[in-house]
Structures are given as structure tokens and as C-alpha cells.
Amino acid sequence: MQNISILGSTGSIGTQALQVAKKHNINIAALAANSNYTLLACQVKEFGAEYACIYDESCVDALKEELKNTNVKILCGDEGLKEIARLKGVDKMLNSVVGMVGLVPTLEAIDAGTDIALANKETLVTGGELVMNLARYNGVRIFPVDSEHSAIFQCIKGNKPEQVRGIFLTASGGPFFGKTKEQLKGITPAQALKHPNWSMGSKITIDSATLMNKGLEFIEAMRLFDLKPEQIEIVVHRQSIVHSAVEFDDFSVIAQMGVPDMKIPIQYALLYPERMECPTEHLSLTDYGRLTFEKPDIDTFDCLKACIKAAKLGGNAPAAVNGANEEAVRAFLDEKISFLQIGELVLGALEETPFKQAVTLEAVLEADKAVREITKKKIEKISLNR
């Protein structure tokens, strides 16, 4: 029986991971959530977790009240996440928190020798070199949970990584595929939150609409599979059935397919290398009938353009675009800026953040802090002029 901990247990990935854990009798040692203390308490009781962490410190007392008749150890904030990451006896930590906050707990878990099931893409976007180098040094395995990276991981398995010519990173295209910048001017948060294929949290859904999500995944794929930017081709695949594909030196291409359900890559990461029945649907290719593939519109979607540029620059550039995007998405959801201004702010981050080639945790955190301050000031100015 595996013993795992989950950061982000009340989110979309976390709740689906618990469904997988329940089906396959996986033991849950610890659970962490942002602010949903009611659901977190229910999960802790149902799965018998010994540790519960609520990131929002204002919710600690409420969580304690929910769990007052238990022996659960209650933690909070960044220190709580770090303590869970360092727990002994945990075989694997699923990191599915949203944003930059996931980086330090990942490093802590790797340092403790715990394998990682990684759904927090910002970890590899902002500190990919640090994470991968530390994982190699400590002999820790990182199992990707994103459907695209899981697909690449599965396609490479059984082949020699050095014989990979390149990868096709698929994208749904989001709700606004084919739209021009003129047509995107009046997009509201409600419209941007309607993804055609996937059910996700609000931040990642907006990222999908701006194609920022695919840009982050571009950088993540570079780090996970030790690829150069020119080895990655983004392909818009509206049906989300082919989750990604790998081309080898002999020009053969292997693709991984399945219904658009995150429980499949979650289960593969948690149960690797076993393949067992998953609580999802069977794929019927004849029901879909036709699969299409198109090029992304990089000129319209500035976030994707910024991420590819940051990937080529390296250093602290990926941390800069990520930090700017997190602030911009929050402002868009609060209706302080327009949809197109998300991309403008992310592109601007590359120009205004002092570039540093060396990647250290301090440099990453410094770039993140600096770009957030710059972006917040810009957002305040935009908001006042609206």
C-alpha cells in the first residue's frame, strides 16, 4: 500500500486524486488546502489523514473547530506546507497547489527523498533547473500529472530519451480559438471561464483561455524532458483526445490518447508503473469520428508569445512571466483589467524585470517579488483609468 500526501486536496486535481486513492486503497498521510476548511476537514475524516494544513492562516481556528474531536495535527501557511513535504514515511507527494507557492514544498520533499507527482506547473516553470538537479542528486522520481506531460512521459517510456527528435505538445486552443484581438477586446471573466473540454479551477481556466497555460507547459516540458525550445511544437487539437506525441530520430511518432479526464494521468502518476482500471470512460474513436490539428495563433495570444521568449532566454525570465501572469489573472477575475491586458502585462514583465542567467532559489524568489510589485502598480493605474 502506498502512503501519499496531497497539497491542494480541495481543488480539481486533489479531489480527483482522492477518488483514485479510494478506488485503489491508497493511504493518505496528509492533506493541505488553501482556504476551504470545511471540505478539507471532511476529507481528513474520510481518509484518516494524520496531518491537515490550511494555507490561509485566517481559517486555522475554523479548521480546528471542525477537527476538535480528532487527533489530527493541524498546520498552516508556508511552514505547514513545508512540514508536510518533509514528512517521513511518505512514498509520494502530489503537489497540486496553484501558483508559485508550490515551488518550495517541492524542493523540501525532494530534499527529504520523497517522490513527486507534480501537477503544479509553476514549480518547473520558475525553478525547473533547481528542481531537476536536486531530484537527480537525491535519486527522486518526478511523475508528471498534467495530461500533456504524462502523455510524453508514457510515450518515451521503453525508448531511449536521447533518441527523441522532438515532441508535439497539444493544446485545446481554449474557448477563443480562431478569434482576433479585435474580437477579444470585450471578453468577460464569465466567458473566459467556459472551457470547451476540461473542468478546472478558475486560474488555470483563464490561463487556458489566454494560452498562458500552454506557454507554461512549453517551459515545463523543456525541464522535465531536457529539451531545447526548437524541439517542441505546439499543436492545437480541439478534441483533446491526443494528449501529446513524441517524434523519434527515425521519424516515427508515438502518441498517447484517452478521453479528456484528469483521473487518467493522476492515476498513472500515483500507481506507476501499474495500469489498473480507472474511474473514467472508455474512449470510442468512432464517436469522435474526426481529429483535427492546427497551428496556434501566437500573434493574437501574447501570453504564449511571452512564455516561448522566456523559455529561450532562460534564467529568471520564466519566473518573471509567471509572476506577472498570476497577478494579472487575479486582476482580470476581479474585473480590474481587460482580457487582452493580461497578455500585455505578461509581455511587459520580460522587458522590465532585471535579467539574471544564474538560477538560484534566491534569484527566482527575487524576480517573482520584483515583477509582482511592478505588475500590481500597473494594474492599479489601469484600474483607475477604466
In words, what does this structure look like?
- This protein is of the alpha/beta class and 386 residues long.
- The strands form two sheets. It has a seven-stranded parallel β-sheet, sandwiched between helices. A four-stranded mixed β-sheet has the order 9-8-10-11, with helices on one face.
- The termini are far apart.
- The chain has helices spanning 12-23, 37-47, 60-66, 77-85, 103-111, 121-138, 147-156, 189-192, 202-210, 212-225, 263-271, 285-288, 302-313, 317-333, 339-352, 361-385, and strands spanning 3-7, 27-33, 51-54, 73-76, 92-95, 115-118, 142-144, 164-171, 232-236, 242-248, 253-257.
- α5 (103-111) runs parallel beside α6 (121-138) and α6 (121-138) runs parallel beside α10.
- It is built from 16 helices and eleven strands.
- β6, α6 (121-138) and β7 (142-144) form a beta-alpha-beta unit.
- Helix content is 48%, strand content 15%.
Question: What's the SSE blueprint?
Answer:
Blueprint: E1 3-7, H1 12-23, E2 27-33, H2 37-47, E3 51-54, H3 60-66, E4 73-76, H4 77-85, E5 92-95, H5 103-111, E6 115-118, H6 121-138, E7 142-144, H7 147-156, E8 164-171, H8 189-192, H9 202-210, H10 212-225, E9 232-236, E10 242-248, E11 253-257, H11 263-271, H12 285-288, H13 302-313, H14 317-333, H15 339-352, H16 361-385
Parallel strand pairs: 1-2, 1-5, 2-3, 3-4, 5-6, 6-7, 8-9
Antiparallel strand pairs: 8-10, 10-11
